[in-house]
Amino acid sequence: MIITVAKSDEEVRRALEPYRNIVVIGCGTCATICRTGGEDQVKEMVEKLVRWGKNVLASMVVESPCDVRIDRRDLKRIEDEVKEADALLVMSCGVGVQAVGEASGKRALAALDTVFLGEVEHIGCFVERCRECGFCVLNETEGLCPIVLCAKGLMNGPCEDMVNGKCGVVKDDVDCVWVKVWERMKSEGREEDFLRVNPPLDRSVKVGVGRVVW
Amino acid sequence: MVIMLELREFLGKGFTLIGQVDSARTVDAGAIVSAVKSMGKVQAVIVSEPQGVLGAANTAVVSGIVKRETEVEVVCQITCRDRNRAALVSDVLAAKMLGVDCFLITGGGHPKLSDTPQAMAVFDLDPAQLVQMLKHLSEKGETPAGHKVSGPLNLCVGAMASPATSPIDVEAKRLERMARIGLDFIVTYPTFSLEALRSFKREVKQLNVPVVVGVRMLPDVRDARRLNEDPRVTVPPELIDALERAERLKGEEKVEACLEANLNFFEGFLKAIKEEGFAGCSIHAPGMEHAVGQLASKLKN
Ligand code: SF4
Ligand code: SF4
């Protein structure tokens, strides 16, 4: 799940400053779960925009705005309004904002901040779990992501900042992930696995625009 | 003529006395060199990164200067915190050019806990990966990516360890992981607890890597209290009391009393470490480096 939070009214208002005719687009997937871009939030946003003196031509929740094909398909239903709009205010992650811009050929503005890839513990509690390093090591680290959970992103921990099994860097009574990795391995009698050296990350894979094409 | 011995050669042959001096955020190499000279007869000196300070003069360069000016065997501490893998190779090669071939690897505390908390934490490599890279350079004379540097560099590589951390078994495993790659020695972060050192020794005994005990002398009672804030360090109350009494004196008298307090405690502590069969000790006395030699001479008597 891509976790988003709402930008402040002030920031959204500033971004919309030069525009009068607006179309509001929500997201039926992640941002609906995050309660940042679902039906209710889109409705609230439309009311806000009207209060701010904007002319809202249309609003709609696109099933998954990060998919350009779906954007093209769904935006057809409000084709005239989109054509007439000065800008589209998109209530989704940054991927959705860009895809909607691409599909519509219009200025697409972000209403949300994209904060991380996370797990939904319950609605209102989302926890970061992956930073898309490109070389998932979960199989080597007992299913615990060292990039996110270790404050230094170490592939072979723990480090000298560990205090009584806790991470001394973040200090919020958070377990040191490498102590947890060790304890899981030990409890299953796989101590030997802890001695393996995970290789350094290949940082070149994160340079430029990531593409998967087949 | 001073005969240069590699640390590797004399570790394991009796008890090795090492001094430790911090680099500093300074352009005054003279002060660091004088501090080392004031240590008197130590077999080697570790040039370390000052704790909690980012942007101190590069330890590779400082090590080179100390080696040239003092002719003492130098151990250069390098951290993974501030440099990517290329910069680490660069530092090691520069140090080697300056005659330094012994390196002490540490991860380095997170910048967030330093005096420059806004800085990026690099950690492109972690200590295990850095040991691996140095071993590769050392044995093959090339980077792990296969870039040729020269013939084998013949480096001596050690790592820092936390003897009083808990859980201790994970620390022992972390060291074993590095020992399998090839560690020439281990230096412990300072502890005042003989008990902790004994159990640490039991944990790492089977690694067959010489362990040098890090000893930290205390210039004054404030320094002692600051160290005590680390939950892994307990400065013995009798030492704090003695430093507190010294604090009530003034000028030279106070300095003398602080020195006395340190010598009284550490003489016994060091003798005990020696008896426990550790390979040596590394004495760090920031701002009172002359005390290193005085303590060392007590050990010889
Ligand atoms: S190791 Fe962590 S950051 Fe990398 S892909 Fe796996 S979960 Fe994501
Ligand atoms: S204490 Fe553990 S989690 Fe925290 S930075 Fe060190 S290795 Fe990573």
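qc> The CA atoms of residues 13 and 52 of chain A lie 8 Å apart.
qc> done
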